Structures are given as structure tokens and as C-alpha cells.
Amino acid sequence: MFEKLKVPIIGLVENMSHAMCPKCGTKNFIFGNETKKTADEMGLEIIESFEVDSNMSECINSGKPAIYALPDSIHAEKYRQLANKVFKYIANKDNKQAKAKEQ
């Protein structure tokens, strides 16, 4: 759909695709690792990956964004990193368009 509408796809974001083992820190993919396969097929990167987390579930259920409810959490940091990646993409695209208009 995005390709038909010519909406640029920056990358893929995995949401609750894995859980971290609290004892050893191993990533356990709950539904397999299909996002990586899809990203490769589409020529895209996975720009962020969010794990299943009980604190996030509480935030979602209460309607409070994690970045505000848990500003020092790893999830809040990942949201900030994701936002920065999107902002950089937009800024780079705007710069390229401005240079193209100058020529």
C-alpha cells in the first residue's frame, strides 16, 4: 500500500516480537524472526525493536505513554532513539529536496 501511494518507508519497527530472559539476557523470539526476513525482502532495516515488558503493558493499559510514565526506562530511550531516526530521515530528505530545487 505504501509503495502504491509513494509513501516512503524509513524502516521496520518490531513491537513485542521478543522477550528477554531475566537470567541470561537471551532474546527469545515469540513468533519467530519473520521481521528480519521481511526487512531483507523489502531492502529495509529494522530501525527499532521493542521487547515484551510488563512495565510497558501497565503503561499501555493505563493510557500513559512510557516516555512520560517511565522516562528513564529502556523503552523510553528506544522511543527517543526511534524519534531521532525519523527526524534525521525527514531532515535529510528535506535537504536533498532543497538542493535539487537549487539546481
In short:
With 103 residues, the chain is of the alpha+beta class. It contains four helices and three strands, in the order E-E-H-E-H-H-H. It has a three-stranded mixed β-sheet with strand order 2-1-3.
Overall description:
- Helices cover 50% and strands 17% of the residues.
- With 103 residues, it is of the alpha+beta class.
- A hairpin with a 6-residue loop joins β1 and β2 (27-29).
- The chain is globular.
Question: How would you describe this structure in keywords?
Answer:
alpha+beta, ATP binding, 4 iron, 4 sulfur cluster binding, single chain, 3 strands, nucleotide-binding, 4 helices, globular, 103 residues, P-loop_NTPase, Iron-sulfur cluster carrier protein, 50% helix
| Pattern of helices and strands | EEHEHHH
Strand order of the largest sheet: 2-1-3
Uncertain spans: none
The residue fraction in helices comes out at 40-55%
Oligomer: single chain
Ends: how far apart?
Answer: 32 Å
GO biological process, one term: iron-sulfur cluster assembly
GO molecular function, one term: 4 iron, 4 sulfur cluster binding
Protein name: Iron-sulfur cluster carrier protein
Keywords: ATP-binding, Nucleotide-binding
